[in-house]
């Protein structure tokens, strides 16, 4: 039987590195190729236990030559495209072409390369719930389904939705098995600032306050703000199920908790895990670690419907308390390296 060889672009990043680890832990016959621009010490440490089953290829998805130089292309069975430039408002102003060049042109480069791989079985694109965008009159009050509506407002979300459409068109034109997943508000192991990502999740900000032995500063309005929070560990389990499925029934799947949790409840969950957690509620508009608008509850800010992935792959996210406990156990094994300081919001 042929061994699966899985390329993960952005494989040293947040979600990508968790997927690589999960793939290697779950199947001793799997080999992975991490394609990324850089691999920091944290990612290197994650991959070391797997020896030669994980190969690192430094390259850039904006360069077709980098992709053409990936070793062992005749053996590659799956490509997971996770490399991207994440949403950072200032980046839109400083360099709006970044989202086009990395997320749209880069995705097209990866697809163009992947369609020529002779053993390719599946192409999996990691998209974002950001494609649902700002709420419209048709945006549901109940959890947001994969069917839309779509109203991406900023260049990041526009580029992710555009890339989804390009990936599906490549599938139709060239007979590729193309699937996509849309992720909700991600936290968990391997979250850190990188050249492609600078905005951290509320659980990260809370961890930093615990590490610094100070109260976490939360604006008053944020206490009733909500999010569909999901750990990178749970995401990797869902992605493995999708990669291993013989014939998935859908082209796109939400991967999320499927329910909303308020920031106040999130803080209570963490306090039960780490009783040392303290909080300070500050006035709206003051400098804070956590500041989110409680009015945002629909479209991309809603919970995401997960019936597709739940029913088809028997996947269920762990209770949020369990996800948080697992994340903080990982962080506090080496807090300075695994949760470096960040500037307040």
Proportion in helices: 25-40%
Uncertain runs are none
Q: Please identify, by name, the CATH architecture of the largest domain.
A: 3-Layer(aba) Sandwich
CATH class of the largest domain: Alpha Beta
Tell me the structural class: alpha/beta
Order of helices and strands: EHEHEHEHHEHEEHEEEHEEHEHHH
Helix count, DSSP H or I runs of 4 or more residues: 12
Tell me the fraction of residues in β-strands, as a range.
Answer: 15-25%
Main sheet record: 7 strands, parallel
Task: Tell me the CATH topology of the largest domain.
Answer: Rossmann fold
Question: What is the molecular shape?
Answer: globular
Descriptive report:
- This protein has 345 residues and is α/β, with parallel strands linked by helices.
- It has two domains: 5-185 and 230-255, NAD(P)-binding Rossmann-like Domain (Rossmann fold, 3-Layer(aba) Sandwich), CATH 3.40.50.720; 189-228 and 259-299 and 319-338, UDP-galactose 4-epimerase, domain 1 (Alpha-Beta Complex).
- Helix content is 37%, strand content 16%.
- It is built from twelve helices and 13 strands.
- The protein has helices at residues 14-26, 41-47, 64-68, 89-94, 97-114, 155-174, 202-211, 232-244, 263-273, 307-313, 320-331, 335-338; strands spanning 5-9, 31-36, 54-58, 78-81, 122-128, 178-183, 185-187, 216-219, 226-227, 229-231, 252-255, 261-262, 279-282.
- Helix 1 crosses helix 8 and helix 5 packs parallel to helix 6.
- It is globular and about 60 Å long.
- The model has no long low-confidence stretch (mean pLDDT 96).
